[in-house]
Amino acid sequence: MTGAPQIRTTTEISFFGTLRRRIGCREISLEFDSPKVTVGSILERLIEIRGEDLREWLINDYGWVDARCMIFVDGEHLPSATCIDRDVTGAKRLQLALATPMAGG
Question: How far does CA 25 lie from the centroid of its chain?
Fold first, then answer.
């Protein structure tokens, strides 16, 4: 007797700007053992594999996506305050970038 088949979901993620330099690569492919993938589960996996210090770049003290982190799912920009629980299962591409403050005077 065998158990239920394992459902795996793969998500392709591209990085831009400062975040690309911090992550150390242009894109990454993540596999999940769950049929449901959320923005939060993706960010937590990135933090797990690329270091806990990445958390302060991606998730704020309230547990929301940090306002500096811009997330696009298949080209659609997601508002940071409400997207941590957004189901992105089946999305073809997730893109992450950081909005860095302008310097100068």
Answer: 14
Task: Tell me the C-alpha distance between 77 and 72, whole Å.
Answer: 4
The Cα 5–Cα 61 span in angstroms is 38
Distance of CA 85 to the CA centre of its chain: 11
pLDDT digits (tens, 9 = 90+) for 47-101: 999 999 999 889 999 889 998 889 999 989 998 878 999 999 888 889 999 886 6
Whose tokens are 């088949």? That residue is 5
The two structure tokens encoding residue 5: 């088949």
Specify the pTM.
Answer: 0.83
What's the burial of 3, exposed, middle or buried (CB within 10 Å: 0-12/13-18/19+)?
Answer: exposed
Cross-strand partners of 71? 78, 96
